[in-house]
Amino acid sequence: MPLPEKIGFIGTGAITDAMVRGLLAEPAAVPHVMVSQRSADVSARLAADFPQVLVSGDNQAIVDGCDTVVLAIRPQIAEEVIRPLKFRDRQKVISVIAATSREALLDWIRADVRLSQAIPLPFVARRKGVTAIYPPDADTAVLFNVLGNAVECETKAEYDLLAAASALMATYFGIMHRTTEWLAENGLPEEKGRAYLAPLFASLSETAIFVGKDADFIDLSREFATKGGLNEQVFEDFERNDGIEALRRALGRILKRIEQ
């Protein structure tokens, strides 16, 4: 299934920047991209970096001129931006607006559009992102497969659960940071700690991808935890000191926030 000839972005923040850079990295996946002027710094950089980018100060012009429109607006102002726009029936619309229901979006759009929701992550800039989409949609999956991999969710519940899981990114880097701090406190220069931890965690992630297809994550945990060894001790301490329950409680709170 081909990608759209022209794709437009209403809202020009970090995710729009990442998606446009991923789509237009050589070889470019689409011939034309329109982006809204807000924010001016991001849109100006994109236009300077890619001749295929057209910046528009008129959101309606983006809707009128594009086959596919991506809504990438902050949820706090989404309704006031979307309601005045006139979409075409059967137009393809992809919302990457956080914590905003499909019902609300359709109410604001007021047209029989083909609406998908997606959770692109910053890694799409390098075409390395994994993106949850809902509902399953071939056009949307093609777009995000160019930017990495699309995971099509059969239900809103599946989509919300993956949205909650994506909230672990800051914790991932936070663990690396706290470990680097601990290493520094015990005499290892920070740059050496970072140089060691980043590829260590990257290798673990690669193992989860390539081996994890045939094994549960807990099986990998056991494989990396020699009986009576150091890895087993840390994981057991983590469990005994309420680490697992703290994680489950945090994810539960995030899910409630998403479902509101």
CATH architecture of the largest domain: 3-Layer(aba) Sandwich
Large-scale geometry = globular
Number of domains: 2
**Mean pLDDT level:** 95
Strand runs, count: 8
**Fold-level CATH name of the largest domain:** Rossmann fold
What is the CATH C level class of the largest domain, in words? Alpha Beta
**Over the alpha carbons, how many angstroms does the gyration radius reach?**
21 Å
Topology as H/E string?
A: EHEHEHEHEHEEHEHHHHHH
| Structural class designation | alpha/beta
Helix content: 40-55%
Strand ordering within the main sheet:
3-2-1-4-5-6-7-8
User: CATH-wise, what's the superfamily of the largest domain?
Assistant: NAD(P)-binding Rossmann-like Domain
User: What is the rounded distance between the termini?
Assistant: 35 Å
- Helix segment tally: 12
Poorly predicted regions are none
Please outline the major beta sheet.
8 strands, mixed
Query: What proportion strand?
Result: 15-25%
Architecture overview:
The mean pLDDT is 95. α7 (156-166) crosses α12 (243-259). The protein has helices at 14-24, 40-49, 59-65, 78-82, 102-109, 138-146, 156-166, 169-185, 190-210, 217-223, 230-240, 243-259; strands at 6-10, 32-36, 53-56, 68-71, 92-95, 114-119, 129-134, 148-152. Helices cover 52% and strands 15% of the residues. It starts with 5 loop residues before the first strand and ends with a helix. By secondary structure, the chain is α/β, with parallel strands linked by helices. It is built from twelve helices and eight strands. The protein has an eight-stranded mixed β-sheet with strand order 3-2-1-4-5-6-7-8, with helices on both faces. It folds into two domains: 6-154, NAD(P)-binding Rossmann-like Domain (Rossmann fold, 3-Layer(aba) Sandwich), CATH 3.40.50; 169-259, ProC C-terminal domain-like fold (Orthogonal Bundle).
